[in-house]
Design a protein that fits this description.
The chain contains six helices and seven strands. It has 178 residues and is an alpha+beta fold. The chain folds into two domains: 100 residues, Aminopeptidase (3-Layer(aba) Sandwich); 78 residues, no CATH class.
Amino acid sequence: MSVAVRPARIADVDDIREVIDRYAAEDRMLERSRDFLLEHVRDFLVAQDMAGFLGCCALAVLTPDLAEIRSLAVRPEASGRGVGRALVLACVAEARRLGLRRVFALTLVPEFFGKCGFVITSLGRLPEKSAEECPVCPKRFACDEHAMLLHLDGTIPEPLAANEPVGYTRLFLGQEPR
């Protein structure tokens, strides 16, 4: 069955919220309010097939150089069908179209993003994120996510140094992930 990725519409907001809330309830991603989703609907892409909505993902532009892939969520029954990969690659294509140089994601599943071409990095190398958004994140004192980075110009980000911290909690508080 073919999967199509398209820009989100207002009519998709309830499906987007439902799949995000499902993973947020398992502490696997951040919850998003309906108001937040309405305000940011233009950042979202959705995947669908003939049966309907399969998943979502957002590309949030943080600076003229950098965007973040956020809120990647696929309905469990669609898992393993390439839906997540299609959404991530569509976000990367949009970042290229916009002329951005770098795209990153914070994830509990770094292996997935690795298969999409991203490499693990330190959140300290992304001050645009760590300085602005991490301090107000509800998980800031228990961050267990890995920062994954992709350079859109084809260069490979510099490898992590030995013992270089990767998450906000580990970066600023010197704690290990839970």
